[in-house]
Amino acid sequence: MGQFLQFAINGLMSGAIYALIAVGIVSVFKATKVVNFAHGYVIMVGAYFYYTFAVLVPGMDWAPAWLASWQPAWLTAMRAELPVMSPMGPVLDWVQNLPRILFGLAGAVLANAALGLVIERTLMRPLMGQSVFAMIMITVGLISILAGAVQLVWTADADFVPHIAPNAPVRFDVGETTIFLFGADIVNMIVALLIFGAIVAMVRFTKSGVAIRATAEDQSTAYSMGISVPKVFSRAWMLAAATGAVAGAILATRNGISPSLGLFGFSVLAIVLMGGLDSYVGVFIAALAVGILEALTQWQLGGDWAEIVPYVAVLIVILIRPHGLFGQKEVERI
C-alpha cells in the first residue's frame, strides 16, 4: 500500500504539470478552433526565456550582484550555524537564488506572452476566415521555426536552471512505509493547479471569458454582439504562451534545459484529445489519470513500458469516444 501511494502521488504531481501544459492548447482551441501542434515548442522557448533571465542575465558583468546571489547578513549567519546535511540547507539555497528566480519567471512570462502575440498577429491573423486546416498547418511549420531559432540563439547544449521552490526532501510515514517527496515537486504541483483553476475561473466568470466562449460558439454572432474577435484570438494566444512559460520553467527544473522539451507538447496533445479539445474539466481529469497510470506502470513494469501504456489507454478512449471524455460532439447538418 505504501509503494502504491508513493507512485500515485508521483503520478498526481506529473499529471498536474500535464494539465498546466494542456490548458494552453485548450484555450487556443476554444477561442480559435485551431489545434496548436507547436504548443510544446512555445513551452520550450518559454523555458529558454526563464534560463535567460534567471541564469544568463544575472551572470552578466553589468547585472547587480544581489541578482545573481542574494546574501544578506541574516542569511549568511543562518548558513554558518547550520549543521551538516541539515534540511534547511536547500531552503537557504533557494532564498539565496530568490531574486533571480522571480526575475526569471517574470521575464519568461512577459517575453513568451509577447511571442504568442507575434505568432497570432503575423501568422494566424492573416488567415482569419480561411480554412482551419491551413491554420493548423501553420502551427506544424512553426515547430521547425521555433526549434531552429532556439538552437541558433541558445545552442543545443543542455544546462540547468534554479528550482522555483525549495527542493528540500519531505518524508512522512504511511503505515510501515516511508513516503519520500521533494519540496520543489510539491510546490510545482500546487502552482500548476492554481494556474489551471484561475484560467478556468476566468473563462467561466469574467467578461474576457464570456468573449472567448461566445467566439468559440459562433464568430459571426460574436462580431454582431460587439465582441472584437481578433482581440479574443490575441488574448488566447498570449494566455497560452504565458502559461506555457511557467510550464516550461517547471519542466526545465525537473529535466534540465534542452531543445527536447518541445516534445512534451505531442504527449500532452494526446491527453487533450483524450479529455476533449474544448473541455477544461475533461483535460484535467485525463491529465491526472495519465500521470497516475504512467507512474503505476513504471512501478509494475518499468520505465520502458511507462512511456507506452498510458497512451494506449488514450487511444482506446478516443476509439470509443472520438470527441474525448467530455468533449462536445459537433453535429453537421447537410
Secondary-structure topology with pairs:
Elements: H1 2-32, H2 39-56, H3 65-68, H4 73-81, H5 88-124, H6 132-154, E1 169-174, E2 177-182, H7 183-205, H8 207-217, H9 219-224, H10 229-255, H11 264-275, H12 280-301, H13 303-306, H14 309-320
Antiparallel strand pairs: 1-2
Helix pairs in contact: 1-7, 1-8, 1-10, 1-11, 1-12, 2-5, 2-6, 2-10, 2-11, 5-10, 7-8, 7-10, 8-10, 11-12, 11-14, 12-14
Task: Describe what this molecule looks like in 3D.
The radius of gyration is 21 Å and the shape is globular. A hairpin with a 2-residue loop joins strand 1 (169-174) and strand 2. Helix 1 packs across helix 8 and helix 8 (207-217) packs across helix 10. It has a two-stranded antiparallel ribbon with strand order 1-2. The protein contains 14 helices and 2 strands. The termini are far apart. By secondary structure, the protein is mostly helical. The mean pLDDT is 86.
Features:
2 strands, 14 helices, two-stranded antiparallel sheet, mainly alpha
Structure at a glance:
With 334 residues, the protein is mainly α. It is built from 14 helices and two strands, in the order ααααααββαααααααα. Helices cover 72% and strands 4% of the residues.
Spatial extent as radius of gyration: 21 Å
Structural class: mainly alpha
Strand tally is 2
Note the total helix count. Answer: 14
Largest sheet entry: 2 strands, antiparallel
Tell me the strand percentage band: under 5%
Strand order of the largest sheet: 1-2
The CA-CA distance between the termini, in Å, is 55 Å
Fraction in helix: over 70%
- Summed over residues and divided by their number, the pLDDT gives a mean of 86
Uncertain segments of ≥5 residues (pLDDT<50)? none
- Give the overall shape: globular
What is the H/E order?
HHHHHHEEHHHHHHHH
